[in-house]
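Title: [Solved] MarR family transcriptional regulator 3D structure

Original question kept below for reference.
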Amino acid sequence: MSDAAITSGPIVLLTRLARLVHRASTPELLGISLKDLGALAFLRDHARTTQQALAEGLCVDANYCVLMLNDLETAGLIERRRDPADRRRHLVAMTEAGRIALEHAEHAQESIEDEVLAGLDPAERDALTGLLRQALDGAGRRTTTPEHVSRP
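Solution (posted by the thread starter after getting help):
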């Protein structure tokens, strides 16, 4: 099938790429799971964030986030502390062990990116990264569910 025959939209294409990345991103290669890599990368970029902000940033359910953090905390990769400004909230921070695990996983992830994005030159990869960030930022600003999307 030629490239001209491909009519799938960006969401379908992103989903297919995500599946390729997920399949290649084994814990054996990364040293941690892909979900843990995502959480640790978010924590690196948003130091000492709240559990709620982490769940929102990762686009996961709050209960799932707590379970994920339990595993990360047990592994010594993160720590949770009560927020001194609001004792009802927990602040989440990456530990030194978490930073080391993240660096190892991101280094291993580079080979997967090289394989999955082999058809793009460095400028195109940078453009793709920028567009994906822009799309995520735009989606994150949406506070209501669109009418055409059904709720579970």
